[in-house]
């Protein structure tokens, strides 16, 4: 009986171990360094001419932005004078690239050649008989007709009056923040948060956006810093729930992020065969 109970315990342990996820998430809370207006749904900056909205939530962080033109005239965002800056290192928004798209159609034509030949042989009455027969051969010809269009990257993006465009080029970071106060692979009872001030933060980043309206050129500097970092096991980062639309609920549950917000982002990582505790 003891041996049977031991076997059940071992099997149960193996089953639960095999079901445990090997994935972890590092969550980043972000605060602005420069003046901002933040509400429950938006994370944005605004001046007399434009409204620049951010939604950072993505794996690695999304520093792309929605640029809305509030004025009655066209605004030009000058990519060749705009930069993403991460920990004092600048990355160009204008890369002088050429984008090429191609389309093609394949056509097949058939050509049949028929010839009449004389065929001699014995008929049903065992008498020699000569008949006329036709033989044919078919050949297929294929051809590919296509074209390509090349578009040179522009140094400026035109934003018409009372409209917006999304400009996106970079992730914020793909490198984990490590600290002695953060366990690298915590369980649900070992989760802790490391907080930072703007001058001590391991990740400080900004968009320096240059734009022109009529004859006037302006530069907007939207700067942020990571204010808190937390490591989570997947079971504490995701939750299962029913989706709802109007008065109807989904039949099956689906996975959702618990901490989804415009001023947060995350990095997903897996447990490796290392022995690092932090």
From TrEMBL:
The keyword Signal applies. Residues 1-20 form the signal peptide. PROSITE patterns: PROKAR_LIPOPROTEIN. Keywords: Signal. This is Lipoprotein. The lineage of its organism: Bacteria, Pseudomonadati, Bacteroidota, Flavobacteriia, Flavobacteriales.
